[in-house]
Amino acid sequence: MTPFPSLVPALPEILLALGAMTLLMIGAYREDSTKLVNICAILLLIVAMLIVARLPDATTFGGSFVIDSFARFMKILAYVGSASAILMSLHYQAREGQRAFEFAILIVLSAIGMGMMISAGDLIALYLGLELMSLALYVVAASNRDSTRSTEAGLKYFVLGALSSGMLLYGCSLIYGFTGTVSFAGIAKASAQGGGIGLVFGLVFLFAGLCFKVSAVPFHMWTPDVYEGAPTPITAFFAAAPKVAAIALFVRVAVGAFPGIVPQWQQILVFVAIASMALGAFSAIGQRNIKRLMAYSSIGHMGFALIGLASVSSGGAQGVLGVQGVLIYIAIYLAMTLGTFAVILSMRRADGMVEQISDLSGLARTNPALAFFLALLLFSLAGIPPLAGFFAKYYVFLAAIKAGLYTLAVLGVLASVVGAYYYLLIVKIMYFDEPAKGFEPMPGELKAVLGVAGLFNLLFFVYPAPLLNAATTAAKSLF
Amino acid sequence: MILPALFFYLFAGVCVASAFMVIAAKNPVHSVLFLILAFVNASGLFVLMGAEFLAMILIVVYVGAVAVLFLFVVMMLDVDFAELRQGFLQYLPVGALVGVVFLVELLLVVGTWVIGPGIPRAITAPIPQAITNTEALGRVLYTQYIYYFQAAGLILLVAMIGAIVLTLRHRPNVKRQNISDQVARTRATAIDVVKVRPGQGL
User: Fold this and answer.
1) Shortest Cα distance, chain A CAs vs residue B149, angstroms
2) Mind spelling out the 3-state secondary structure of A68-127?
3) Closest to A42 in 3D by CA, of A93, A91, A81, A99
4) What is the ipTM of this complex?
5) Considering A284, A402, A443, A465, which has the largest number of Cβ atoms within 10 A of its Cβ?
6) A32 vs B193: CA distance, rounded Å
7) Which residues, numbered 126 to 155 in chain B, qualify as contacts with chain A under a Cβ-Cβ cut-off of 8 Å?
8) All structural domains of chain B with their residue ranges
9) Tens digits of per-residue pLDDT, B98-146?
């Protein structure tokens, strides 16, 4: 008889699940409990974060749930992203008169899914985590029912997401069929001698599904429409935490399950990375809406992050370097994105939210502090030293060059130069154009998020050791 | 040994016959009742195989819930199946031809199937004698695969919350029943005694 599996490694997920159900009861039976539910959800995520940080390395549920340094690192990032998204939605919900307490609960449930994805040790856990996260995302994307654009965003996301889930499942079943196991370790053992054409087919379908979740080209079509249509705090959430979880899953699957057939997936990733960076750089130039612009920007950034993964040419030092690049990139991307969305969320005039880039014109004169922070974040997104975004790109390019992927690195640098154009264009609009009407004063919690994100980006180069060391430890735990 | 065989042919025969009657009966209500008979006989077959848990689940879920729901829908909708089935005999030859083609194809496919020598022994798990069906299933579902089971439960919870979030609307001008308000109502809050003086009105 199999003994009951240890629940300790899954403690954060269990806490979040029980907490979400309790909050659901509070929300359903108490009048006007939106604010209470929101704050409790943030506290839950913070407690989960503290627990994750202290969990020892372990594997449970028959190998389908893994806690290692990598899982700890990524889970903390995912929980930070989720908690910040709820925090940034407080003012928006109060102002727009949205009384839906379920918003925060769905984000918590989605965070459970992210935790399951990050800790996934086999294909079934991977799929269940992915669906739990995505299903909650489909609902929150459509949560503003009175707006046709939000409904359209939700529907589009759902239909395309279901399609990608189908591809992913097809890939999983092929992989299971050709290796006879669902566990990543088992697949790695079965594919150590190269694997057959069937396994590669399965791998391609699996990667297609994962590319959809990280919105990498050519599976990016949903991103601009969903980002533009969804309510802004939800766009902020989409751009941050789910990307972290999906990239983590990508790394775990590629490195954990297919170390034997690296050349096969490396060429896929090289193509996906180049295409994402190019599309992110060129398509963003013509955008007028800042949320659409951020969508293309996030596509481009996912391309840069995947450079790191593509550089995992073998185990050992080179593998650690590549994964470490991904981890550093994604951590800094999270900070840049959350900060930028804090600014976008504060673009509010008396008659409502505005989201055109032209609305930012002359911001330096109407609100110098906001303009300064946004300019800082945009410089960082463009990758200009000495801001954090430069170091993010530096580490992935370093890994690519060490792996001998010179073309990839050069194209990446070129794409980031093109990308710098539209980031700097916004800075120019803010500093040199005629001032438009000023925005309403920024609420405190957005100021806090923006301040923390801005200072992190500004001062990262002074003391980068904690993040670098954590990323190295996390990357080493995978090899 | 003769008794189980006898019961097997009894259950199997009634099951096949009632399954045929499901598609042959004129009255749709009779069809559903024959469906229930088929389910009950199938669960008898499960009992003969030693799968008593599945037998009971078949009765509880399929007869108790699904078939009753069918019956309910059939009675509610009042579909004229006789009309729908008109021309059934007319199209029978074509249908039979297609069926025969499929059957031949299937036979050709199955005929070339070679089963590996070790496979049949590998896939038939021995039926554990010491524990009951229910316990064995419980061990698989709630111990070995508890993680997947609970995760699937969470996904269903999200689906439920999502359906409610996206469709529930509180309309402002609709009177809704509030039971605690009704219960809390007392004589003092409900009745207002007014002294009306003659010739003055209220």
Assistant:
1) 10
2) CHHHHHHHHHHHHHHHHHHHHHHHHHHHHCCCCCHHHHHHHHHHHHHHHHHCECEHHHHH
3) A81
4) 0.92
5) A284
6) 36
7) 139, 143-144, 146-148, 150-152, 154-155
8) 1-87, 99-124, 125-169
9) 999 999 999 998 888 777 777 666 666 666 677 888 888 888 889 889 9
